[in-house]
Queue: 2 jobs
Job 1
Amino acid sequence: MELLQIGEVSARTELSIKTIRHYDDVGLVVPSARSAGGFRLYTGDDVARLIAIRRMKPLGFTLEEMRELLDALDVLDDGTSSGAERVRATDALAEFHRRAADACATLTKQLGYARELTEQLARYRPDELR
């Protein structure tokens, strides 16, 4: 099992070291191991959790909602989860999916507006900047 130091995780996830430490402090993504010197060490699964968080953040999900989504994913990945737990997790993920799709639609519309404005303003640039 490959263990990564926080700097490597930061590079892979495009999250700052400070942000990764914050997620550890609030218990959202706790590193799977520590080095002999006490440094945080992360697994591929830890990195995947951080990437999921990075994807949720710009869509407006709170830390608690991120925790709920990660917990639901854990339930579905755990072969020992009960049927009732799996149903609750599936329902939660369906709601998160709906909200993510709504956020994507909103962001797509906003991106269209930004492109329109950029094109409009480009007409006023001096010729040498075109």
Note: Residues 60-130 form one domain.
Job 2
Amino acid sequence: MMTAADLPDTIPVFPLPGALMLPRARLPLHIFEPRYLAMIEDCLKTRHRLIGMIQPRETPPSERRDGERRLQAIGCAGRLTGFSETEDGRYMITLSGISRYRVREEVQGFTPYRRCLVDWTPFARDLGPVEDDPGFQREAFLDLLARYFARLNLSTDWNSLKEAETELLINSLSMLCPFSPEDKQALLEAPTLVTRRETIVTLIEFALRGSGEEETLQ
């Protein structure tokens, strides 16, 4: 368990559209670009082994610095907890979500990857125990999810969803469902687990209305 004192002021960041990391969830990544291979190697040398996942903004070419898109204001850092290397030099890693952060400024330096000075204090709750959602109606939620998955021809292990802890269920679906990058950012910035669950429900209901289904989750 990491504490606020363990969190560094500056972290490497990995801008990846549509990739969402949340506290206490795990994100597998396939790393092959040279600059991010270097980032992983440098990360493994640190005590905290943190990498900040963050989404790039839609940025007109005229406003980009060195061709790079601007970053969202809020991301989430994960600790590198799994690592393997393929025969052709690619890395397969797993990040375990620790805490969200707010970008204070991007650090200019000599690394091939991007780094940011960050503020952890708005998200002190992320370092606490698992969140609960007292009003969560699992059966109704899973019924709605089943219609959504059927519409998209997706499959899942329904027994695992029925038994999963509420936070793990909501956060895993936030990360895995094919929502837009903007919607994923909204899920990241949700202040509580309850708000995140309500956001998922709204997104699913909107998708189902687009397919002609009108029933909503009360």
Note: The chain has a mean pLDDT of 91.
